[in-house]
Specification:
The chain has 376 residues and is α/β, with parallel strands linked by helices. The chain is built from 14 helices and 13 strands. The strands form two sheets. A seven-stranded parallel β-sheet has the order 3-2-1-4-5-6-7, sandwiched between helices. The longest helix has 17 residues. It is globular, with a radius of gyration of 21 Å.
């Protein structure tokens, strides 16, 4: 059988740094397929992501919103030369571009919805197959798209985090880290994650009250300077040992610092990466002052919404801070990684999806709505 050639498309929006979780998910998925598949990655949009800076099968194509009017045919020429059998889009804007290319090249389209809310609208951009990272999205797509279009729930998108001792030692030396109990949250600094920041600080207050030899590290890039400054003022008022770490040396691929943490507060793929190291993990939820511990009792509810801070846990048990401090809270989170998150467990499923995808008729009205949303 002829080897399939896949073109991955992903879009960097105007105000994006190109470092969102779906960029890392694409990197992990494509890497897991590297020896099994012929593929190329094109990063469309306003800026070239740094996530793929060490990836050979990658190129950037500048494509701002209205550029598509006169830049599209340059892109079409590139894609025609690649001659893919399938275009796999990793966000709504790259999906619109994929659909436009398909009009001319008659290429099958696979679309991945990388978590996040479903939204109030029942509109879903058409593709020939859908891959969903969360149960929440899978159920929504199953309800509001054509039954004949295949849908796959594949949350697996994480490689096991490798320990880089040299990088860790450099970090510890720079920030004078010794034997403290370390609480870690990796996050971009913007108001979207405010609930997570506040719940993390609330949790740390209680931990620090029980154990003065503890420290909280926030690591991430600044996306809102105003929010970052307000957070600094809040931390100053709390008078707690909390560090805000924003230098690129440590924010780029920040997961490499997960091994130093005793406790990780995380959402989305951050939960999965921490689970690969069997860390004590807490997840923010909407209906609590504190994040909740990830364990066998809370897993299904948190997992169904992709470990989003939009999650609601029905029964929030009291937190035994003594057990946390003694590092006995761990419910063997590595189990969740092995069963649900390891990307290497699903490479054959991706190959089967690409081999069996079939063309579906595009709805002109659906395409028009996709165009309008692309240009917004």
């Amino acid at each position: 059988m002829k080897e399939k050639k896949i073109l991955f498309l992903i879009y960097t929006s105007k105000y994006s740094s190109g470092g969102g979780g779906h960029f890392y998910s694409l990197k992990s998925i494509s890497k897991s397929l590297d020896s099994k598949l012929n593929y190329q990655i094109i990063n469309l949009g306003y800026a070239k992501t740094k996530v793929f800076k060490d990836t050979e099968k990658f190129q950037f194509f500048l494509l701002k919103k209205w550029d598509i009017i006169y830049r599209f045919f340059s892109l079409l020429k590139i894609v025609r030369n690649i001659n893919p059998d399938v275009i796999h889009a990793f966000d709504s804007k790259s999906l619109f571009v994929a659909r436009s290319l398909s009009f001319f090249l008659n290429i099958n389209i696979v679309s991945t919805k990388c978590g996040g809310p479903n939204g109030n609208s029942k509109y879903i951009s058409t593709a020939d197959s859908f891959i969903l990272f969360s149960k929440e999205n899978f159920e929504f797509y199953s309800k509001f798209t054509n039954d004949r279009i295949p849908k796959f729930l594949l949350p697996n998108r994480i490689e096991e985090v490798k320990v880089d001792n040299s990088h860790i030692q450099n970090f510890k030396k720079k920030y004078n880290i010794n034997d403290e109990l370390l609480v870690l949250r990796i996050s971009r600094f913007n108001p979207y994650y405010n609930l997570t920041f506040i719940q993390t600080i609330n949790l740390f207050k209680q931990i620090h009250y029980k154990n003065k030899n503890s420290r909280l590290l926030f690591i991430g890039t600044i996306q809102s300077q105003e929010y970052y400054e307000n957070l600094k003022l809040l931390i100053l008022k709390e008078n707690l040992p909390i560090d805000l770490i924003t230098i690129e040396e440590f924010t780029h691929n920040a997961k490499k610092l997960l091994p130093i943490a005793d406790i990780v507060i995380a959402t989305g793929r951050g939960v999965m990466e921490a689970a690969s190291l069997n860390k004590i993990i807490f997840c923010p939820v909407t209906n609590s002052k504190f994040p909740v511990a990830l364990n066998k009792n809370t897993f299904n509810l948190l997992f169904s919404m992709n470990f989003s801070e939009r999650s609601i846990v029905n029964e929030i048990s009291s937190i035994d801070f003594e057990r946390i401090i003694k590092k006995k809270e761990n419910q063997y989170t590595r189990y969740f990684f092995d069963k649900y998150f390891n990307v290497n467990n699903v490479s054959n499923k991706y190959l089967a999806i690409y081999s069996n995808v079939k063309k579906h008729r595009q709805n002109p009205l659906n395409y028009l709505i996709n165009l309008i949303r692309f240009l917004k």
